[in-house]
Amino acid sequence: MTEALSVQQAADTARAIEQSVSRILVGQQQVVRDVLLALLCNGHVLLEGVPGLGKTLLVRTLSRCLSVGFGRIQFTPDLMPTDVTGHAMYDPKTEQFRIRKGPAFTNLLLADEINRASAKTQSALLEVMQERQITIEGRCFPLDAPFMVLATQNPLDQEGTYPLPEAQLDRFLFKVVIDYPALVEEARIVRMMLDGTIEDDLSVEGLSALTDGPGILAMQHTVTTITVDEGVLDYALRLVRTTRELPGLARGAGPRASIAISMAARANALLEGRDFVIPDDVKAVARPVLRHRIQLSADAEIEGQTSEMLLDKLLNQVAAPRQ
Fold this sequence. Notes:
Elements: H1 7-24, H2 29-40, E1 45-48, H3 55-66, E2 70-74, H4 81-85, E3 86-91, E4 96-101, E5 108-112, H5 119-131, E6 133-136, E7 139-142, E8 148-153, H6 166-169, E9 174-177, H7 183-195, H8 198-201, H9 213-223, H10 230-242, E10 249-251, H11 255-271, H12 279-290, E11 295-296, H13 298-302, H14 307-317
Parallel strand pairs: 1-8, 1-9, 2-5, 5-8
Antiparallel strand pairs: 3-4, 6-7, 10-11
């Protein structure tokens, strides 16, 4: 069994990873933090944003800092489930079937544009996420730990995209929205390009490994030692349960959201160097935990409301316990 690090050791390592990845992924500090929190919780992340905002660079940089395997699958309408998981193929030399493992056999898997694939192929990946093992021709292959999927999707108003079913969305710990960088950060990127330094400044090759697979597992174990008192747990539960009766929502978050928000709050506390959770930790992770688990009502959409607006309303409406 993996031994836990001290909270301070785990926090120092996690912060170093956060700083290293943020230096490469210019202007996306919150995205980097959310992905790191999900990793500490042994969860998966759905990244939403238009092309060209650094989603692939994020995963490559993270895998370099963590010294773990990295795989990428480009989802297309004709992608088959076996293109994800692997298949058995006949070897005429040995006259036997041998297993050819698919790209899902890795540690960090980037599933690019998952909402462009068929429902059957989406389900194949999401089953791997849930079971953390792959079955090929009746043989079961456990995936190496740690295993994390970062699936990207384009906004649904783009041509050729298909929404993920509610049950599949719930498999993701977080939904993280990648937005355009601020003016000063975009200007910095353009300046690096004009000066010819962008390849050096944004190169992942020079990054040092800050931990490894066993180190990640140790940090994940440390997260489970963070204490959550009854008052904070009650606050997290009230946030989730209020989504089920909040005006403007046709569907609220289920019990899996209650588990996710409590786990993620622990990880946020660790990143802040604490061995206990406070209400601010719950608030910090509420949006990425809940935004893909709620559904606007038709009236709210007509009125121009958004999920982010209703989540802001939720956080203002539900009183946090005094610290």
